Amino acid sequence: MNFLRSLADRDRVFDFLVPAASPVDVRHGPILYLEDVTVSFDGFKAINDLNLTIDDGELRCIIGPNGAGKTTMMDIITGKTRPDAGKVWFGSRHDLLTMNEPEIASLGIGRKFQKPTVFEALTLFENLELAMAADKRILPTLTARMTPAIRDRIEEVLETIGLAELRLRPAGILSHGQKQWLEIGMLLMQRPRLLLVDEPVAGMTEQEMERTAELLTGLAGKQSVVVVEHDMGFVRSIARKVTVLHQGSVLAEGSMDQVSNDPKVVEVYLGADAEEEVA
Amino acid sequence: MNAYRRKILPRPYFRNNLRTRLCTKFRPSQLAAAALVTTASLGFSSQVLAEDPIKVGILHSLSGTMAISESTLKDTVEMLIEQQNEQGGLLGRQLEAVVVDPASNWPLFAERARELLAQHDVDVVFGNWTSVSRKAVLPVFEELNGLLFYPVQYEGEESSENVFYTGAAPNQQAIPAVEYLLNEVGVERWVLAGTDYVYPRTTNRILEAFLKEEHGVADDDILINYTPFGHSDWQNIVAEIRRFGSEGKKTAVVSTINGDANVPFYRELANQGIDAADIPVVAFSVGEQELSGIDTAPLVGHLAAWNYFMSVDTDENYDFIDAWIDYTGDEESVTNDPMEAHYIGFNMWAEAVRKAGTTDVDAIKDAIIGVTVPNLTGGYAAMMPNHHITKPVLIGEVQDNGQFDIVWQTPSTVAGDAWSDYLPGSRDLIADWRAPMRCGNFNVATGSCGGSTAAEEAEAALAE
Amino acid sequence: MRIFPLPWPVAVKASAGSVAGRPSRCLVLLILLLSLCLTAVAAQAQSPDAAEDAVALELLEALDVDSYPAKGEAIDAIVQSDDPRARDWLSALLDGRLQRADDGRFVVVLDNRGREWPVEDALSGEALGQMSRRELDRIGINNALRNQLRSAIAVVDLYSADLALRRASAERLLGEVDADLAEPLAGVIEQEEDRQARARLIQALAIHRLEQGDIDAVADLKGSLHPRVRVALNRAVMGDDQVVADAAQAALNSIEQNLRINRGLETLYFGLSLGSVLVLAAIGLAITFGVMGVINMAHGELIMLGAYTTWAMQQLLPGQPGLALILSIPAGFLVAALMGIAIERGVIQFLKGRPLETLLATFGISLILQQLVRTGISPLNRTVITPEWMSGSLVINDALSLTLNRMVVLGFALVVFAGLMLVMRRTRLGLEVRAVTQNRAMARSMGIRATRVDILTFALGSGVAGLAGVALSQLTNVGPNLGQNYIIDSFMVVVFGGVGNLWGTLVAGLSLGVINQILEPWAGAVLAKIIVLVFIILFIQKRPRGLFPQKGRAAEG
Amino acid sequence: MHWLGRPFTERSTQLFLGVLLAALTLVTILHVAVPQGHPLHVSAYTVNLLGKYLSYALLAVAVDLIWGYLGILSLGHGAFFALGGYAMGMYLMRQIGDRGVYGHPELPDFMVFLNWDSLPWYWTGFDMAWFAFIMVLLAPGLLALVFGFLAFRSRVTGVYLSIITQALTFALMLAFFRNEMGFGGNNGLTDFRDILGFSLRSDATRLGLFIATGVALAVGYVLCRAIVSSKLGRVCVATRDAEARTRFIGYRVERFQLFVFVVSAMLAGLAGALYVPQVGIINPSEFSPVFSIEIVLWVALGGRATLYGAVIGAILVNYAKTVFTGVMPDAWLFALGAMFVLVTVFLPKGVAGLLAYRVRRRKHRGEDDESPTPRGKEVSA
Questions:
Q1: What is the DSSP string of B283-320?
Q2: Do B406 and B396 contact (CB within 8 A), yes or no?
Q3: What are residue D163's phi and psi, to 5 degrees?
Q4: A42 vs chain C: nearest CA distance in angstroms?
């Protein structure tokens, strides 16, 4: 029976049956709103009654020890994992729990993975071209032509991420840091309202880190950005507001200074790290 | 490998092969040029052939699934050619075997047949096993006017000007076997079990019609069952046969089960306690060669119907067996019915060549009708005008040594019938390739050859 | 004149024209005497003198005629002569081994393989060495004679000391008792001590009584599931006597009810047995594919190697198929496991993380292995003998008997499964395998030699395939194509059950087997298979991870 | 630039079309103009053989489109090929008319043989060429649509997809073996007489079919090239290398997969339709899983994700097969098996990769320009 019903679920095949995505409504407050979200794997609660609000245009850092549920949280927002309970709203109009990944992506939520994933066989230019906000249905994609406007936009982003010289090289030859930037560039091409960035500086050199920090702070204001990061120095260098996750729920929230002085946070998380930072 | 190569290869092939090897070493820039040379080399072999020997094409699969059955037939023809050459060849010319391998692939059969006829210009071809491969090459032989000797029992319903059927037609195997079961064993209920392809389908239809029309067997007393090729799980079917056979009437299974599926079938029969004495199975596709690969214990006492058994007690047969064992160098090697068919076919063709004094295809076609040569069972085989031959029918019982104990035999030979009398579509058809009829499907009801008038009549009937 | 009661219908038919008088009680006694005397004389091993030989020769000469009725009389004559060698002659005649040499001597062929046959003199029993088959002429018999011979030997068996022979004899008498046999039979029943044989004889007699219109006989037949009993009851229902017909109908109804249950059980057994074959074939794959992620298309050929090992063992130990079969279990495992190691080291290790490429490469290996067997051994199927203890079936009741070979395979499959579970759950290797599967890098850093684990896992999976081959050699052909027939089914079972889950493989294999066997009588063998395949395809679309998917974060990716 | 016109500006396409055109012309000239007996004459047999290779080449291009560019390893493409072949075979059967041995005006011989009294409904329309030719594309396309819809929707990819495509073609093979299906069972369809009024037994028709196959290959090649060099092609490559990522940047990956899968199936069907009149028989063995895997080998040997590599591979392997099975039948399976192993282990980019490597090395010697190898997706990435 389920099978028959799924056959009737036509909008998954025929694009024209899908209502056009409506713009995000942020008049009534935050751009992202998570309430009482819970998800468990084999009895282990990866996310436990998580509540989180991100404002439009905000740059938010999320920190937390391993297993705090940072990546799972991102999975839930982007539709990869379905929570057992709770609400996830994008603006005040879109219930993300009813949507699949491409739908969520086309609403304007972009995600950068922990491990940089770019299309290695394609050139940088093509990577950006694919990521660009455009009509992403089959026939328009098949007949799409390269216009000067598109080319300019791609060049602009290539400049922004500082990889313009490499535009015609396959992305597979890039260094780790360059891939991270390219991925951020791809997110920019989507003109997202909300950027989810997972550990952008892992494995980067000092200079690369600086450059990344510049990139991200430059984006805030135009877009809302959520950064998940381990590196405290980096967080300190870009953070305005920090959320600390622990065991799947919010432990503390506030500016970096507030948070790092919170005794609970110091106890469960910052303890060892903070000393290192000082050193 | 070398000896092997020498044995089966016509010389031009070597050259061709050398050329191929040379031209596969092309450089990228020479792609086009290489393609050209390759193309040319494919069409090359026909030019270097010497005119001298008489060429005998052999079209049997040497690889793939059918290699099991067919490769011995290739060896048989090669042995016969060797023997003929020792006797001085034919018309003072030596015979030369041209062997190709259609690799158990039906489209490849057609391609290879074309290669034999068009590229190698062979004078005659011995080949094929399965019906589908024969159907695949038939248009090629008709188009290029070749001669094909087909050595395997088949479903009939065919008579081509270019094909000589030296295996049994249904009336030379199936019907006598069923008559034996009816009259000698007293069978009243029938299981017709077969693999799902055209030979069992047709044979079973003929048998069904025969049993019902000639012997008044009721619908309830016939059980027909088809299984896929290589079927290995017979539990349900054997259980059904067991139940079918336990209704108090003597029951027999007429099996047209093909090749590999037989071993699990007989095993299951034995394990479910069905003895040859309770429900005998008479098989049309189980011969010495098939038995040589299996544990015969579960089969002992079951029957097979053929036109030849290795256990036939005649001197011709013993000579043939000795020659075959000498040729293969294997004391264990067995002979079987299709080998005898090739033996007969080859001798008939040789006789026709002597009679006609030429290897010309059309001359042979005329000369061969009526040619009579000894078979291995102590009698004679004659080529009939419908391109089928006369054969005795033998019923043998499987013994534990993998041989058959002959329990019954037709008193005289039976002429092969191309068109069955028991099928409505072919009842009125006859084949006669002698002048002036020269027709493979002459309709005696309408008095015309082929379908043309039948079609007109059908249209007329529709119009009314 | 005939001396034996001829209980079999065909035999009766064959003798119908010539029988002067029906056998009587004294003849049965005669048989009794004869059989006693046969054994007694044989035990003393007295060599018959020349005069006896002349008589014997005459008896045999009478067999060497063309007319079958004359041969029938000659057989009767041999039976009547109380020559101690008669029984040997009759069984040799039945087997087609009684032959006449060109010099006129009668010989018994000891082994009729090849062109030269060892023979012994039929009269003196002395070995005559080898004779060419050209020199020998077989004394042919037909079916009627065959039945006459069997009857002659079998009725003697009713009085045999051998319990098995007596039981078989009693079995045969069902539905074949006539008025002449009925009376002595009552005496035999009295004497019979074995319960089973006795019950049979009572039923046999009851069938006869029912035919005579004896309503009490129905009580003796009630509850029997034997087809002959059913036939007899059916006849009674059709009969003129209304009372008897009603009683028979009632008995028949309860039998039919019982039969339906038995048929259901039978189908279940067929399904489980087919399922066990699928499980055996697939379980090795569940390890290499499920645990290591290697698509081993040569899996079928590893099964084939196991089967060929069985054949080779039987060649090495001629005459002891059972022992050879048992020894092939470790040998088959070893051969396939070694081949598995060769494949892993030779090819798969270079293709880590490229499952689709391993698929192609191992397919190439499968072609090579097949062709290797074809050219190296033979393109023909090989003979693998089923040992005595695996032939036949276990009789539960008259309508339900379980074939032994399949039962052994079913048990074997369960044992292999349990063994694998133990290895995976309880041994160091199992632990390491699971560790490497879940996180290779981490496992390595913990000091687990991942390469070694890969080799061992693959060897284990391959070895289990070899075990499947040993089992399959008892069910199907051992030939180069053996593996090909099972590879797709194996993949289906693993995928249907859920990759990486041994329990899933077991449940999937058994349930697919049962579904197939339930569908088969209704849809036919081909359609049943197609339906099962389509069902799996649709099922995978619906639940891409099979019946028992691996859960958790790792699987989400 | 229009997406269909784009391929013509690419050098590799120009080169490919040039070589193909040259080969077609050359063979035609050598066959028609050079007299028989001349060493350069190309016989009808050879023309026929080359025609068969070309239809295989088209099939290989179809497989390369989805395997090379989309990363979907279909082990069931033989099924689409065979369906196209059967559609064509049914048309050719109907063309026999009353020339069958039984002379029935409508029923093919095998139906008379099996005592059918009328054509099954699914045979209607196949006497009309246009209908049959549409079905050549439609039948495989429809099967691909339904199958792909179900598979891609539930994200059955990678190895699982390979296995169930194999099951699909196996199930179809069993089904077509059944005589009740009305497709001639094991014997299949054979004894064709003519196509569009031309006798299939004449050399001219054979040449015509050869040229038609060549043209179809050119068209199929250009179509595939146009697809892969469009933005859609780049989406495919993106999907192949990082399916999840492609989804996150907003492409409905399953629809792209479905679209390309259907196109590929239709091309395979076209190849089958051109194959059947040239070999003269279609039977269920074309559905055998082994054949489908062999197609993949052609592509792997020629070089994935190049399209022309598929053509080279198909022709090379089949030519080798023709030669080997003639010279050393026993060795053929060894050679084929070894090819599978060696190509996957040592030559992941195939012959095309080898060619490209040489060309590149000659062009810019010493320059490091190694593009990453396209790889199959992991079982569970």
A1: ESS--HHHHTTS--GGGTT-EEEES--TT---HHHHHH
A2: yes
A3: -70, -40
A4: 6
Contacts of residue C371 in chain D, CB cutoff 8 Å? 330, 333-334, 337
Asked if C188 contacts C182 with a C-beta cutoff of 8 angstroms, the reply is: no
A151 touches D at CB < 8 Å: no
How many A×C Cβ pairs under 8 Å?
15
- Percentage of residues of chain A with pLDDT beyond 70: 86
Structural domains in chain B plus CATH codes: 174-283 (3.40.50.2300), 429-463 (no CATH)
Complete domains list, chain C, with CATH: 98-138 (2.30.30), 265-384+403-556 (1.10.3470)
My answer on whether omega of the bond before B102 falls inside 30° of 0, hence cis, is no
| pTM score of the predicted model | 0.84
| A128, amino acid identity | L
Residues of A in contact with D235 (CB under 8 A): 130, 141
Query: Domain containing A229: what range?
Result: 31-120+192-278
Q: Which residues on chain B are in Cβ contact (under 8 Å) with D281?
A: 106-107, 110, 132, 135-136
Is residue A184 assigned to a domain? no
Quick check: B201 and D355 CB within 8 A? Answer: no
Highest-scoring range by mean pLDDT, C383-397, D235-249, D259-273? D259-273
Which pLDDT band, with edges at 50, 70 and 90, does D364 fall under?
A: low
Q: Which pair of tokens denotes residue D85? A: 């072949």
Q: Does a structural domain hold residue A180?
A: no
CB environment C226-255: b (16+ within 10 A), e (fewer): bbbbbbbbebbbeeeeeebbebbeebbeeb
Per the listing, tokens 């009925």 go with C182
Q: Provide the number of structural domains found in chain A.
A: 1
Q: Are B368 and B353 in contact (CB under 8 A)?
A: no
CB contact under 8 A, D154 and C541: yes
Residue A81 contacts C, CB cutoff 8 Å = yes
Mean pLDDT is lowest, of A29-38, C162-171, D64-73, for C162-171
Residues in a beta bridge with B391: B414
Check whether A19 has a pLDDT greater than 60.
no
Radius of gyration of chain C measured on its C-alpha atoms? 31
> How many CA atoms, within 13 angstroms, populate the side-chain half-sphere of residue C275?
25
Strand-pairing partners, residue A90, are A32, A94
Grade residue B372 by pLDDT with cuts at 50, 70 and 90.
Answer: very high
> Does the distance separating the beta carbons of A102 and D251 come in below 8 Å?
yes
Q: In the numeric block, which tokens belong to residue A52? A: 């989180």
Out of A2, A41, A80, whose CB is closest to C552?
A41
Centroid of chain to Cα A86: 20
Residues of C in contact with D153 (CB under 8 A): 541
Please tell me which residue of chain D has the smallest CA distance to A145.
D1
Examine the predicted complex and report whether its ipTM is higher than 0.85: no
Contacts of D364 (CB under 8 A, 6+ apart): none
- Report the percent of chain C where pLDDT is more than 90: 27
Q: How far is C476 from chain B (nearest CA, A)?
A: 5
Q: Count CA atoms within 13 Å of residue A162 on its CB side.
A: 12
Q: Using one digit for the tens of pLDDT, what is the confidence trace for C221-232?
A: 887 888 888 888
Torsion angle in degrees (nearest 10) through CA of A260, A262, A267, A269: -40
The pLDDT assigned to C35 comes to 52
Is residue A247 assigned to a domain? Answer: yes
DSSP state of A174: S
Tell me how close the Cα of A80 comes to any Cα of chain C, in angstroms.
8
Burial grade of D35 (CB within 10 A; 0-12, 13-18, 19 or more): exposed
Return the residue of B nearest to C513 by Cα.
B233
Residues D371, A138: C-beta atoms closer than 8 Å: no
State the amino acid at position B144 in one-letter form.
Answer: L
Cα gap B53→B46, rounded to integer Å: 14
